[in-house]
Amino acid sequence: MGETEKIEVRDITRIERIGAHSHIRGLGLDDVLEARAVSQGMVGQKDARRAAGVVVQMVREGKIAGRCILLAGEPSTGKTAIAVGMAQALGTETPFTSMSGSEIYSLEMSKTEALSQALRKSIGVRIKEETEIIEGEVVEIQIERPATGTGQKVGKVTLKTTEMETNYDLGNKIIECFMKEKIQAGDVITIDKASGKVNKLGRSFTRARDYDATGAQTRFVQCPEGELQKRKEVVHTVTLHEIDVINSRTHGFLALFSGDTGEIKQEVRDQINNKVLEWREEGKAEINPGVLFIDEVHMLDIECFSFLNRALESDMAPVVVMATNRGITRIRGTNYRSPHGIPIDLLDRMIIIRTVPYSEKEVKEILKIRCEEEDCIMHPDALTILTRIATDTSLRYAIQLITTANLVCRRRKATEVNTEDVKKVYSLFLDENRSSKILKEYQDDYMFSEINEHEEEVATAGGGGAKRRIDTGDGDAQPMEH
Amino acid sequence: MSYQNWLDYLQSAEKNSMMSGKLRKVHYKFPDGRQMAEEYNMDTGIVQRRAWRKSKQLMGEPEWEIELGEEPRQLSWGSKSTAGGGGGDADNNMSAPEFTVRESNCTPLLTKRVTKKNIEWRIRNLPYSLEVYSVTAEPELHAIVVRTSNKKYYKVIPVPDLDRCGMPPIQGNISIHHQFNTLIITYQKPDILCEMEAQVLLLLKNVETETDMDDLLKGLLAK
To answer: Across the strands, what pairs with B147?
Structure first.
């Protein structure tokens, strides 16, 4: 029973789900940071991409701490896409934390704590540590499970190198690892003795003839030489936040997995900063500053902004990239209005990258890329219509029509989406414009319409009209961004 | 060919010493964060046990690593027992499920001890006869290597004592012996090593020794 469950879980992890920005693989720049027209899933926004490329370069060099970059532009002009592109261009080694401005509002944690955790999640520390690993070819593996199906499993494995052979007893946890990795006789594996991590390196050359057919991804490796147990220097990449959590005595490292970290004391953080600096001097550790990306930064309030002002001055601060789609608007938590809803003093510390609306040609390219990403074959005419829809309504709506049109097309057992399919989904699903038009026409038939109207009158009469208008404006734009 | 570095290193450490029965235990705290513990037999002046604790970086207390002498016998397996210290039978396996992976208790087990004239390694649980083994000194590795012609056992044994006085291992000093499932490798100590050990003992003479707790207790009880 346990076996089948495990297999299912494996299958789910293998399928990558297609998200809004999963077609983006990088910034699409060449070696001299010039933006290619269409590359790595990015289209248009040449200036913004070039600017982002410079930022990426700055992060890679890792010398400058606490810079702030603002991506500003209208809704659906690719701000988040550029941020995702930056993350991809930086690679997996550099920490890239992505959060939304509204994520900091939690009842369990103060706003500034959430922000400083996010800042510290974006600083990586590479620590060199010596660990003991066992590396060898599996000669024999026995796993016995009790007849009742539950309870302790007993496992034994015999490993060998070219020179020696040893038997090992397996603990319960590692048996699970062995089963998950589907390890069998003839595999060359490594076991990290401290953490119990099992890694399959490949199959031994001597076992190459065991099967007539092997999968394409089967790697054949030499049987290791020398001793089975070796001391190897391994490099861990952890973030400062993880070190914080491990060292905050009240929780212990289990908090890392439960996510329930609570507030971490400033003293702990200071200690860790000092320790990390010490390690760096000794050459044991390397600091690897990354990027913190805050989407919808106008959702932060005045306290957060003033906290950021100070936090960015610390020499342990990452590069912060923010994105907003607001023009001159009220700063949250005050009655003052400011560009992008960010106080002027913080804006002064930023460099601003502007994204511009896409041209029709670029929209078509994006739609084409999305079609490929979703495995949808679209007729050129249908694509033209879709482009038209995208320019008239919004790019997001058009992208959503790709998925739905593809489903409609599959229902009539065709492989290529044609204009009829697009027309059909266009009539089935309303875009925001048409929906609000209908709302305006049939306002009276909807529930509570009278009360709403009444309330609005009171509000305007009360003199808070300007404020209310801004608030409703916020509400309109919000669904567009997601 | 000098042990001065080692003496200086010991000199730099913060040392504590205490007596326990016929053993003198010395604890060294080095400026680089490492710690060493030694047990000297008071009758012979020979080190019986020596263990190192190297500072670990990420978390947790580092474990003691035994360079010399027997590991304390454990009745039940600890979670991180590295070598087979005691008889772990099936019942004990069930009661200690936390371990991840360990050598089974029939695998060869290496221990080292030092006598007045020799350094000795015993490898238990090696049932093969004497012709199977080849024990060679490899100066490039600063180690002695044990090989078996049936490819069942292979071990690079570092010799830190020789490193400390800058001597490479010499093939001529090695002799091997096999009985009771045990391979015994004996390495005759060169003179310089004996000299170094004498110097270390002189150094330790100046370290103040705490009173034996057992004696103290006995004295108190007598009153």
So the answer is: B134, B154
